[in-house]
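[[Encoded backbone]]
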Amino acid sequence: MKSNQKKTIESVVEQLRTLAPQVEEIRDNIEEIFDSRSENWQESEKGEEMQDEIDSLYDATDMFDELIDALDSMI
């Protein structure tokens, strides 16, 4: 791999490392709101939609970790 390609990958990894905590913070904030609601609300359609959003954000943070690991292994 060429030096400029490695530098580009390093830059992308750095950006991902900046973005990942932001996504985690969003997820944590939404989860805190969800947890503060009543059990009845959590089991409602709106509550289930919010839980799906939280689950998707957990998946996204896992994908960030996997992507960072994969790119790190290339440099």
Notes: Residues 21-72 form one domain. Helices lie at 3-36, 39-42, 45-72. The chain has a mean pLDDT of 97. The CA atoms of residues 27 and 56 lie 9 Å apart.
